[in-house]
Structures are given as C-alpha cells and as structure tokens.
Design goal:
The complex is a heterodimer of chains A (about 625) and B (about 180). Chain A has about 625 residues and is α/β, with parallel strands linked by helices. Chain A is built from 25 helices and 16 strands. Classes of the chains: A alpha/beta (about 625), B alpha+beta (about 180).
Chain lengths: ~625, ~180
C-alpha cells in the first residue's frame, strides 16, 4: 500500500495531497471504503433487488436463467420502477423537509417567538406575498411573515390541493401536467403517496409509478426546494454578486478553523454571527490564535457563500480531506450528505464534530441541539467549543496545501435581472443573436465511483467553449470554482459570443446560483424566460447535467427538471438498466410525454456534444440560428 | 507448476448470487453488466447456488474432473482439454446440444442455452470455463472477484489444504488462531 499518486481519483491537487497524507497517517477515507465495497452488487446496480417486504428479499435475474419475478409476482419493470419511485420520494423529502424548517422559522419570526432570526429582505417577502395572493395593505413585515408562512404551511398539507408557487411555471407546462395528471397537489402528500404506492400490492404498473414519481419530483422543484430558496432569501438576504475564495487553503494555520457542513442556513448563519462575537474572538486570541476563521463545505457552505461570501473549503468528497489537514478545530453539521465516516476521520485528529439537528445525530459526535429560540446561545457555545479544541491541535500534523482560488458568487435571479437592467430582454436578445446559444445547469454532487471534479469541470469548459452559458449549484460550484471558471477572467475560455457578453457585463461564463435547493432558481428563471417568449420550457435552448451525482436528492432534481421540460444528462448510470421499460421511458419515451428525457453519458466531452445537439435543435425550432 | 483453481467454502456463502451475475457478465459479448443485460442472446451463469437444509446456500460449479465423465460421454468431442491446461472447456461450435454431458455430470454443473458465440445454433452446453481468458490476462475468475465473503477463492489447492490443516490443528489443540 505505497500508493502516492492519487491523480486517478481526483483532479484536485489539494485532494491528492490530502489523500497522500491520509495514507501516510493510516486514515481511512471514502475512497478506501468504496474500494472495500467493490464489486458492488450487480442486482442493485441494475435496480433489480427489492427489500420492500418480508416475503423476500427478492432479486430478478437479468440474464434470464434464474427468477424473473419476486415472491409477490412483481417483474423486473415493477421492481425497478418502485425503486426509482422510492429514491425520488427520499430526495424530494430531504429538500422539502429542509424547506419546512424555513417556513417554521419565518413563522416564528412573524409570531415574535424567536429573536435570533430576523427578516433581512422584507421587499422580497412583500413580493412573495403578492405572488401568493396575500393582501399586503396594512400589514407590517411580521404580519406578512405570518401570512406567507401560513399559506406555505398549507403546501405541506392537503387542505388546498394546490401549491403556492406553481403559477410560476408557464401556462403551457401547467396544462400539460394537468393533462398527464401529474400536477403536484401537496408536498408531503406526494411523498407519502409514493411510499404507499410502492408498498406491496398497490401500484404495479411501471409507467403509472413513474408518472407519480414525476409528480413527487415536481412537488420538490416547484414547492419544497423553491420554498427553501425563497424563504432563505427573505430571512438571510437575497444574494448579490461578490468575490470569495475556494479550496482547502481557505483554512488558516494561525486561526481557529470552523467548518459548517450540511444544508440549512438556519444553523450556519447562526454560527457565522457567533464567530463575530468580540468575546469569543478575544478568547481565541487568548489561546494564541490570530482569530476565528469560518469556511463552508457542501450546500450550507453554498448558502453562506452566496449570501455572505464566506469561503468554501470544498465539496462532498473534500469533507473528510478537510479534516486531514489537521487544521480543522470544529466541524458543525445539520443534515444531508454528511458522511458518518466524517466522525471516524475526525477521531484521528483533534477535530470535534458537533451535530445540531434532532433529525440527524451521529454516533461519536457531540450533540448541541439548535432550536429557533436558542440558536444564538447554542452557536456561541459551539464556537466556544472550537476555541477549546484549538488548544488540542497538533501543529506537527498540520498541512494546508496550496493557496486559495478566487471565485465569484451571488447570482440570484434578482441579481441577474438587476445586472441586466431590470428585465430579461438583454439576455433574450443575446440568446436570439446567438451570442449565448443556450444555458445549462451543471448541478449535483461528487461520487467516488468517478474521478472527483473531473466531469463537473470538464463539461463546464466544453460548454462555454460552445457559447453555452453555464449555471452551477451545489458541489459542482466547488468543482468549477477550483478550476478558476467562476471568475470573469474565464471568459477567455469561452466561445467568442459568450466571451463578449461576459466581458461587457464583467461576469464569469459559469455563474454560481446557489445550493442544491437553489436549482429551483434555475427552474424559476427558465419559467420566466419561457413565459416572456410565450413558449414552454421544453422549447428553450437549455439543458441540465449531473455529471458526478450520487444522492437521492439528485434523482429528484433530475426528474423535476425533465418533467419540467429540461433535457438532463447524467454522468453516473442510475440503477434502472434492469428494466427495458423504465430505462426506455426515462431515456427515450418521456420525450413524447413531457418534452424532455434523461441521457446517460459519463464522458463530459460526449455529454457536451449531446447537449450541443439538443440546443441546436431547440434554437432551430425557435427560428434562431443553430 | 502450481495450478490455481476455484475453491468453494459453502459455509461462508450468504446466497447473494453475485458470483452468478458476474459470471454471466464475464461471459457476455460486451463484458459490461449495464450492456450485457440487453444483448440479443443473453449470457448465462456457469456457477449456481443450490439450496440446502434450512435454506443454506450451496455454490456449485464444474470441478473440471480428470478423467471427466462429460468429456467421455461427448460424442462430437466438444468438451476439450487442449484449450487451457487443467480445464474442460466446451467448444460451442462442436456442441450438438444432445445433453449427454449433463446426464453423466455427477455435480449437475452443466446447463443448456442458446449462446451468442454460436448464433443460430440451438441450445448448447454452458459450463464453467475456468475464466481462462481472464486468468491469462492476470485476473481471477469473475465469480471469485465477485465473492465478498470468501466463499469462493482462487488458489492452489494444496496450499488451501495446508491452511486447512493448520485450522484443524488449532481447533484440535484448543488454540485460537
């Protein structure tokens, strides 16, 4: 085990150096665990295993020698469709439960039952109130907060059977959903119904199951995630463009280093405020540190990056490697995408892991439970624990590689439209003129089954070369940011049209639009473009890609994109190939149903070609140049 | 010369059937699971999991006997010893699918299916070929690579027996290894 070259696992120098350090220090990482799991289960890879009931577990033999039906009689198609349905339900549940926490926060602010949070963008709250048909006259901000949150609570119930923000989707799209019977009715309802349908003996028709999966996904994209985005903006401020920094070198050797990891800004914003507490800064200095340094991981990192310009230490696969620097004193997490292995890695160093959510405890971590009425106090406590932990740091084991890379962030739709002078017209003109041929959202995760950051960043490079504007969220932000693509200077890597637009506006060719719930921003922008042009989203020269996806949330995102009419390329094969019906529908048949499909293409150059061909077709159909 | 073979320890088998699926993958036209499951003529596994008392799984495959009853019963001479040393390999082009080899096989290790390698033929005898092509490339047989519990191992039978003697000695003399 003398491996020292890790370039086959990751393109990032900082990651390679930390993998070498981990190997030297005998620290097991996600890549080691992935290797130990190989070969993965062939039935599961194809989606052909079912554990939904105790008559099984069952597997279908894809080679036709063994059983072709489970004990209940379900065939390969039913089993694969049920498994897809449950994945989508889990992913949508994750985003939507995150959204619910923000509705509760807004409600508590409105009720005056929390003073730890305030409303930083009351204008956006008022705009949302108008959008939701709430009478705003004579209502102060707190009254509006109550009214908006009460309306959004209804999205999580079954009283209304319609979702607050669904009117954002173009009329043509809503008509299509209605015709197909997939208009989402309630956020929790669709998820619960999917769990019901996939119980043994309920929905046993694969197409019917997949249509409901689309409805579940739409309840995420146009409600659960969208609510999370919009209310985070209301409470913590709508992002505006600014420059921040990315990679492991944002950690500071002479500072107390705190990482926030997870998804919801409710915790990370409280921590950010606590790091500015003069008493704690003094306490850090008393311990010999130069100050307190906060950096982000994953999506809660994206939330702080977008709104506050807090630096990003890394994405999903960097979370353990950040600890391997030996310089992280405290890592504070809420929920989603936090590998349990993180606690084990932290145990190899002085680093402390603190969990905060009653929904997400981790064995071996310390739990400091945050709630709406104690967040400020608990955040101060957590930062105090980081300062304590700093005393235990072993300077001989500290190695922070390289230097930080600058990246531009903060491109909310409001900021984009603001930069365009208040309307979408300049963007539409640039698209019509072919300067910007189209737009692609590169979203999603890292996955140790593919080379870390390679496909995310290479696809972005290939697309901007072709005058296709790229929007990034989630872990793809860090992948592209570390390669310098999120700076205006990257315009030199773009085709002539896109490059000229970027130079004129002083923006990068790859725009950071937020965290994974903020994919809803991309949907809202597509909807606004389509409505302005009087077309459907599926008519637009746009696409999506999740080159390194791993999570069930990504499955939900991919499906709401497709069900909204956006062609979506996946870089990692989803577990559907065991059913020709399901795989055929997802990669082909859906085109005739919702006007878009998935494609599976791990090679980023070939993925760019597929997207380019799609954009060409859509442009020609709109009467534009290819 | 040391000849390694696939050694089965049924007491370690959990019945996951990964060996079967990876065997079929390895003998498919594409050699890639994601593609193999949609080939026109599906490859078939050459190792099978039987079910014993209390549903205990029992991995079973060709032992490559010498002399081999299947080879002796094969009238067209389709079961050959001259393709890879120590292995009895079905030459599908010669197989007439008569079923004699299956009738005489004391281990029930042979199945009959159409094969992509002889498209247009009827069913031919499908049995373990020792993954001789993989082994020549320096890989272990596909079933062994797939086995996560160690129920299948690719090793020199004599070394395996020696290790077994040591385990036996430890048990007999009351020493835990």
């Amino acid at each position: 085990m003398s491996k020292t070259d890790f370039s086959d696992l990751t393109i990032c120098k900082d990651a390679q150096q930390m993998l070498a350090k981990a190997r030297e220090e005998g620290v097991e990482t996600v890549w080691d665990r992935k290797r130990a799991q190989e070969p993965h289960c062939g039935f599961c890879e194809l989606g052909l295993s079912c554990r939904n009931c105790a008559m099984g577990p069952c597997r279908i033999d894809p080679f036709g020698h063994g059983p072709q039906r489970g004990v209940c009689g379900a065939d390969a198609h039913v089993i694969v469709a049920r498994n897809v349905g449950r994945s989508v339900a889990s992913g949508a549940a994750a985003h939507s439960d995150h959204g619910r926490d923000l509705v509760e926060t807004l409600h508590a602010i409105g009720e005056g039952s929390t003073t730890d949070y305030t409303i930083r963008d009351p204008e956006k709250l008022a705009r949302i109130a108008v959008e939701l048909g709430i009478e705003t006259a004579g209502k102060d901000t707190n009254a509006l907060a109550r009214a908006v949150s009460e309306r959004l609570f209804e999205d999580y119930g079954i009283r209304r059977n319609s979702l607050a923000f669904i009117g954002r989707a173009p009329q043509k799209r809503r008509d299509l959903w209605k015709k197909l019977g997939i208009t989402p009715r309630g956020i929790d309802r669709e998820v619960v119904e999917m769990m019901h349908r996939t119980h043994m003996g309920v929905d046993n028709e694969p197409v019917n199951l997949l249509l409901h999966a689309a409805r579940v996904a739409l309840s995420d994209g146009w409600a659960g995630s969208l609510t999370a985005t919009e209310l985070s903006d209301v409470i913590f401020g709508t992002p505006t463009p600014r420059v921040a920094q990315v990679n492991l070198a944002v950690l500071k050797e002479d500072h107390v280093n705190i990482l926030v990891h997870g998804h919801n800004p409710i915790v990370s914003e409280a921590i950010l405020a606590a790091t500015k507490d003069p008493g704690l800064i003094k306490a850090a200095k008393d311990k010999g540190a130069a100050g307190i340094n906060l950096a982000g991981l994953c999506c809660t990192g994206n939330e702080l990056l977008m709104r506050q310009g807090i630096p990003m230490a890394g994405n999903h696969l960097m979370s353990e490697l950040a600890i391997v620097t030996g310089a992280v004193d405290l890592i504070i997490v809420d929920y989603q995408c936090i590998m349990p292995g993180l606690v084990t890695v932290a145990g190899c160093y002085h680093s402390k892991v603190i969990t905060t959510s009653p929904k997400a405890h981790f064995s071996g971590a310390e739990h400091v439970e945050f709630s709406l009425d104690n967040a400020r106090q608990k955040a101060l406590q957590a930062v105090g624990m980081a300062i304590e932990a700093y005393s235990g740091r072993d300077p001989k084991r500290v190695f922070i590689p390289g230097s930080p890379v600058p990246m531009m962030t903060g491109f909310s739709n409001e900021a984009v439209i603001g930069a365009l002078g208040g309307t979408l017209t300049p963007l539409i003109d640039a698209i019509k003129a072919g300067q910007i041929r189209g737009a692609v959202g590169i979203v999603g995760c890292n996955n140790p089954r593919v080379k870390h950051d390679f496909a995310n960043s290479e696809l972005a490079k290939e697309l901007i070369k072709r005058d296709i504007l790229v929007l990034v969220t989630g872990c793809a932000t860090v992948s592209t940011g570390k390669q310098g693509l999120l700076m205006p200077e990257a315009a030199s890597l773009a085709g002539p049209g896109l490059s000229a637009v970027c130079r004129a506006l002083g923006i990068p060719p790859v725009l950071h639009v937020g965290s994974c719930v903020d994919n809803s921003r991309i949907m809202s922008l597509c909807a606004a473009l389509a409505t302005t042009l009087g077309v459907d989203i599926s008519d637009l020269p746009v696409a999506a890609a999740a080159p390194e996806w791993y999570s069930e949330k990504a499955v939900a995102i991919g499906l709401y994109a497709v069900a909204s009419g956006v062609f979506t390329v996946l870089g990692v094969t989803p577990p559907v190939l065991g059913s020709s019906v399901v795989a055929g529908l997802l990669t082909n048949g859906l085109e005739g149903v919702v006007g878009a499909t998935f494609a599976i293409e791990p090679d980023p150059c070939k993925a760019a070609e597929l997207i380019d061909a799609r954009i060409r077709t859509k442009r020609l159909a709109l009467g534009l140049s290819a | 010369m040391v000849v390694k073979s696939v050694i089965i320890r049924p007491e370690l088998c959990v019945g996951c059937m990964q060996c079967m699926i990876r065997c079929a993958e390895a003998h498919s036209e594409s050699g890639v699971l994601a593609l193999a499951v949609s080939e026109a003529v599906l490859a078939k596994p050459r190792i099978h999991i039987g079910v014993g008392p209390e549903l205990r799984p029992f991995p079973n495959k060709c032992r490559h006997c010498e002399p081999a009853p299947c080879q002796e019963a094969c009238m067209p001479g389709a079961i050959r010893s001259d393709i890879a040393e120590g292995l009895k390999i079905v030459d599908m082009a010669r197989c007439i699918g008569c079923g004699m080899c299956g009738m005489v096989c004391p281990y029930f290790a042979i199945r009959y299916y159409p094969a992509a390698q002889v498209a247009g033929h009827g069913a031919v005898a499908i049995k373990c070929d020792g993954c001789h092509e993989r082994v020549a490339r320096g890989q272990v047989p596909a079933c062994v690579e797939a086995c996560v519990t160690g129920a299948l191992a690719f090793e020199d039978v004599n070394r395996h027996m020696n290790a077994g003697v040591n385990r036996l000695a430890n048990a007999a003399l009351g020493v835990t290894a």
